[in-house]
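Repro:
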Amino acid sequence: MDEAADGVVSAARDGAILRITLDRPSRRNSLSHPMIDTFVAALTDAATDDSLRAIHIRGSGTDFCSGMDWVATNSAGQRPRTGHLVRRLPHTGNRVIELIHTIALPVVCSVRGWAVGLGCNLALAADFTVATDDAVFWEPFVDRGFSPDSGSTWLLPRLVGLTRAKQMLLLGEKVDAAQAADWGLIHRAVPEPELGAVSEELLSRLASGPTVAIGLAKQAIFYGQDATLTQSMNQELYNVELSCRTTDFKEGLAAFRDKRPPDFQGR
């Protein structure tokens, strides 16, 4: 395989952090079908790996991700049969977004350059996205003549409200990193030389936290987006019951009693 043309998604352990790199810089890290399949497999494996405590997603080169490789998909010489997208997307691009959104581990994205379409939605689905000042977030679906996908119509209104979501989805307006941070679309915009250090500080903090409690808190936050207050508090009760049974809970209490920083082990 010509990796420069076809690209790869690499997943490498770095202690308790899983580092996923989108590596196709010649195509702004657009995701081919094999790359998405690898991405799904890496996240699926991570979801059941009790030794992991955080996930880091980044792009190779000067861009984060320019979305799905629709050019390759539509230039194979034979038109896919009717219903191809309906059959495939739930298990490919949509599945990546679902896994990032639901996995019981904190996910950090580091974004340089373009984050477009599915690439933009990867950054929106992450728990924390740090981007360089010159990064650009763009949902170009209507500019290409088709409707939005990969969770953009669910993620954007919840992050920035209906009016700003319509600006991005119906008008196809690009949003720079500073504006994205101001809107609450991403966690933080930083000068390019600071991207690595800021992302690593965040990953270190998350990976040294009480992993089970963080995962349960993440689950409760998203559950509450479509629940009543009473339903959300009931969900919190079950989560508290689980987190109180962890070793990290006992360590947190001991550290509070001893007036020292806790040493959480993620269990």
